[in-house]
Amino acid sequence: MAAPGRRTADVSSSSPAPSPSPSTGRRLLRTQTVGNLGESIFDSEVVPSSLVEIAPILRVANEVEATNPRVAYLCRFYAFEKAHRLDPTSSGRGVRQFKTALLQRLERENDPTLKGRVHQSDAREMQRFYREYYKKYIQALQHAADKADRALLTKAYQTAAVLFEVLRAVNVSQSVEVDQAILDTHNKVEEKKKLYVPYNILPLDPESTGQAIMRYPEIQAAVYALRNTRGLPWPKDQDKKPGEKNTGKDLLDWLQAMFGFQKDNVSNQREHLVLLLANVHIMKVPKVDQQPKLDDKALDAVMKKLFKNYKKWCKYLGRKSSLWLPTIQQEVQQRKLLYMGLYLLIWGEAANLRFMPECICYIYHHMAFELYGMLAGNVSPMTGENVKPAYGGDEEAFLIKVVTPIYKVIEKVQCRVPASVPVDQGSDIYNIYSHRLPRLVPVRVGIPDQDAVQPGVQQRSADLPYPGRTQERPRDPEQRIGLGCC
């Protein structure tokens, strides 16, 4: 981090145009750029699309400016340096104007903020402010009981993480070591930050069991059911320790680890599934139990509605569904929740593929069969290892290797559709193409008989009839879910 107040990049541009007069109204034209908006742009934390990573830093600068203007200046200076690293040539839309306006503000605020500095160095000033912020805004709210205080604590952890990032950059630029006490505090903040994350309705982190909404019996029943991960084959790098019991992992975390879904998608669909189950559970079981347990009738009702279209798709094509239940009664509920969670996670990352219901059914049909193979412990005769997703289970692999290739095909199809074709007919064209996915898309979503291919013979998806060949399922010890069940 260079010395504050000096230019770190050659951001040559003409002076920003003056702000529009009040007589022209508050409506902004599309031709106006960030440089035309003056300093209000930093107060609203609006940044160019290529510089979204600096938005939290500008938010913290606005938040602490009233308390310590020098710390706010250092945050903006660090944001400027980070913006220059993200886009050194200022080639992004509005980046040059944004960096010019921010640099001009930094030049104006450097000397005034120096006068109000308590310590003689910016490094010591940042360390002092970080300690005070942690004591005032985090320690005082750690034992909060209501939702409002918890929201403030979540925000405080995020702000503290940004302040430490700026603190570390300032200390490196001035060759000052960070105190060990601050490093220990930062480690605590990082641990809590992983738990206190933003949420929509339900705070599902382990620290929120005392929240009022989490005390409802129907919510507790759904959460406890999802956290039953007994018997699941976790990956080696995420396997539980022998003596570890309460890890906070649930069935959707296992699906994420095995199929490579996005973290935020898992969080959203976890809350979605809990609310679906809780709403039906309270209608099926109006009486409150001391030890809430998810009602099987409520689970079947949600599952029947969720897979209604998939069942019709299988029936229309004359295919057996990929939903198979174990004969052990204690594992039935877990298996149903895994099937439901997998469908919601696929839907959550499908983007515009949601407008192609046959495509969603096709993807789910094969991934559900892969799920069955992993739970049954099937071994691939080609690799000698346990069955894994055909596209691999790396981080965000589903989005990169399944959704994106199909979406690119849709983009090409869209270019071929005449503009005069009505919207409803255009969607029918997409569904027609979804029936030809094995021939159009260079992606494997788990063809059921892929392990039966002879060694040395490369099997192409184009050789497979839609929606993929099916191999004979074992009847024992598994049984297929009947149409009357879900």
TrEMBL record:
Keyword Ribonucleoprotein belongs to the record: no
Composition skew (Basic and acidic residues), residue ranges: 470-479
Enzyme class: transferase
Record key words, sorted: Cell membrane, Cell shape, Cell wall biogenesis/degradation, Glycosyltransferase, Membrane, Transferase, Transmembrane, Transmembrane helix
Residue span, 1,3-beta-glucan synthase component FKS1-like domain: 334-444
Family listed: Belongs to the glycosyltransferase 48 family.
Reactions catalysed: [(1->3)-beta-D-glucosyl](n) + UDP-alpha-D-glucose = [(1->3)-beta-D-glucosyl](n+1) + UDP + H(+)
Single Gene Ontology BP annotation: cell wall organization
One GO cellular component term noted in the UniProt record for this chain: plasma membrane
This protein's name: 1,3-beta-glucan synthase
Positions of region (Disordered): 1-27, 452-486
EC id: 2.4.1.34
Topology within the bilayer: Multi-pass membrane protein
GO molecular function, one term: 1,3-beta-D-glucan synthase activity
Species name: Zea mays (Maize)
Subcellular location: Cell membrane; Membrane
